[in-house]
Amino acid sequence: MRLLVGTLAGAQSVFAVQGDMAVNLTDAVPDIGTDLAALTAAPDLMARAEEAAAGEKMVNVADITPALPVTAPPTIICLGLNYTDHIKEGGYEIPDYPALFMRGRQSIMAAGQPMVRPTCSERLDYEAELMVIIGKGGRHISEADALDHVFGYTVFNDGSVRDYQRKTHQWTPGKNFDQTGAIGPYVVTPNEVPEGASGLKIESRVGSEILQSSNTGNMIWSAASAISIISEYSTLQPGDHIALGTPPGVGHAKKPNPRWLRPGEVVEVEIEGIGICASPIVDEAETMQKAAM
Fold this sequence. Notes:
The structure is a single chain. By secondary structure, the chain is of the alpha+beta class. The chain has 7 helices and 20 strands. Helix content is 17%, strand content 32%. The strands form 4 sheets. It has a 7-stranded mixed β-sheet, with helices on one face. Pfam families: FAA_hydrolase (PF01557). Residues 75-281 form the Fumarylacetoacetase-like C-terminal domain.
C-alpha cells in the first residue's frame, strides 16, 4: 500500500494512494487517526485500512498537502557513512561499525515544506536517503528477523549544515538545524518494493542538474543490518525512523568548488518505487522578516 498523510479542506488525514487518486482512510476508519502512528502500532488496523482502500470515494492527490507521516516520531536515528564512495569523498576511513547520530523533532519537516538555510551559514548541503519507519518494536532483533519489524519505507533529505557538522567530532549541530530534514511524502509498505528496499535507484537533483545518482543496493549496512545493530543498544518502538545514509555526490565534495543549496532553488530526492521528496530552499533571515511584518 502507498500511504500519504496530508491535509485536505483543512483536515489532516491518512490516505491510500492509487495513481493520481486517493482514498481517505481516516474518514473510512476513524481509529486510524490523522497520521501513521496508530497503523504502525496496531497491525490489525492495516487489514481494515486495506479494506477501506477499496472504497469508491476518491480525491485527487494533487489536492492534498503533505504532512509528516508520523507527527511525533519517538526516535529519529540516522546512519552516516553507509556508501563506500561517499565515505571516500568525505575523506573518512571505511568503518567497521556505522556512524550513528540522532535528529530532533524541530529539525524535520514534511516534503514540500521549505528547507531553511540558516542565517549563520551558507553551507547547506543535501543528502538523498532511504528511510525506514518501524512497525513492530523490539530489542536484540536478529538481522534475519529485522525486516519483520518494518512498517514501511519513505524518502529522506538529510539536509546538513557542513561547517557546523565539522565543528566537533559529534555531528549533532550540523544535522539538527530547524527545518533541514525533509521526509515523505509517501510511505510504501514492504510488499511494494524489493526485500529491504534494496536495488532501487536513488537520486538528488535541482532542476535538470543531477547531484547524486546511485542505488540502495550499494549500502554497506542494509535496512535489516541497521535495525539489528541499533536494537542491540536501544529498544525500537513503533513509529521510530531510521535513515540509512547517503550515496556519493554531496555538495561539500564537489570539485573544483562545493555545491551548496541556494534560496530560490527546489531540491528533489527521488527513490525508485517510493516517490519524490521536493523542498524549496529559503533563507532564514527572509522568513524571520516576513514573520515580523
